Amino acid sequence: MNASGPEGIEEFPVEVALRIGRGDRSSESVLAAHFSRRVFAMALSRVREEEAARDLTQDILTSVIVALRAGRLREADRLTGFVLATARNRISNHFREQSRRPSMEEATETLEAPPTVDRVEVKEQREHLRKALDRLDGPDREILRLNLIESERPEEIGRRMGLSTEAVRQRKSRALRKLFEWMERFRSQRPRRVY
Amino acid sequence: MNCQWVEHGDIAERYVAGTLPEADRDAFEEHFFSCEACLARLETLQHTAALVGAAAPATSRGGRYWPLAVAAGLMVVLGVTFQMTTRRTEQPIQVAQAPKAAAPAANPWAELSRFDAPEYRTALVRGTAPSADFRAGMAAYQKRDFASAAASLRQAADRNPKDAAAGFFAGVSELLAGNAAAGIQRLAAVDSMGFTPYQEEARFYRAKGLLQTGDAEGARKALEAVAAMRGDLETAAKDLLTKLR
Hints:
The complex is a heterodimer.
Chain A: E1 3-4, E2 10-11, H1 14-21, H2 25-47, H3 50-69, H4 79-96, H5 102-107, H6 119-135, H7 138-148, H8 154-161, H9 165-189
Antiparallel strand pairs in A: 1-2
Chain B: H1 3-8, H2 11-17, H3 22-32, H4 36-54, H5 66-70, E1 83-87, H6 110-113, E2 119-124, H7 132-142, H8 146-159, H9 164-176, H10 180-192, H11 199-212, H12 216-229, H13 234-244
Antiparallel strand pairs in B: 1-2
Helix pairs in contact in B: 2-4, 7-8, 7-9, 8-9, 9-10, 9-11, 10-11, 11-12, 12-13
């Protein structure tokens, strides 16, 4: 479906957006399936709470589809940028006006909530990843925790754990490489669900 | 931005940790929206953060991904509970005791870790009323019975993890009762809720808790975060930072 470019870059086909503008409802699911993981990853990073990120993802995709239906996106080749801008706007609103969700209210009469990231799939991925994490040394897991959760730099982690900065970097790099490879094999064996 | 930059610059890791500068963050978002490989990398890191965060020991310092671990939500800011105003008292009321786990004489930061109990002044109720546990907890808190307050507020906070007020006063009560690790954990959870009336105070008193345990580096980071908020506690945070250096 996607056109592959250099370095694995995949542009979402603009004709899907155009079809939504012409009233093709099936294209809406295609769009939601493509962008839901991206928007969810972004929302999760910004709000750092899964349920809130899930709600935001649905809200953002709803807004995008409503806009496409209404023909508000004049240059369809800018779709990715439009989704990004919508996501940033909605996430900012989330922090500013947490209780107000105008786009969902706007859309409830005309649009079924689009699918968001599949909980079962996330659970499966995490269960698989846990096996790889369990195989790592305890200090390696602690380095990942301090880096990803506590936002500590390698030099800070090194001081805390009695390791050199370089040793922390090497351990982190090696541990992540194992996790990435492990998950890459998992993904290649289990095609992503189609919504 | 390209994939090599993402890999060699630890961009995805820093994105998950929340330490990327804004311009790089935006550039990375534009990149992974179109790059399946970097999106997969990011997802693996987010899953990893959720797993190692959830597996962290109870005494660990709370971090940015605490909500993933405790399933607490930013939804506290949806305004379904009550809003409460608090202010820091001008006069000393109760000085936090040294933690049970650490001998005061062995902790060089014991003096800096002491604090007066933040005053609970008024509850302006909007929406649902405070729970019985919360009311009992705050009654004990006002009588300076912090062990009893912690017990009741713990229940109130556990029953409603989105209740920032319950979490905040539970955390402070734990610290004042000498349960540093539990207090730090509670306050980290409040901080992780994001923008609430208690975020700045939660960070400040978490720093105090970290000093109780002798973790000056952790306290320094927490205080820097307080100072960066430029709120009511900016001066107090900067004063403490000066003393820590």
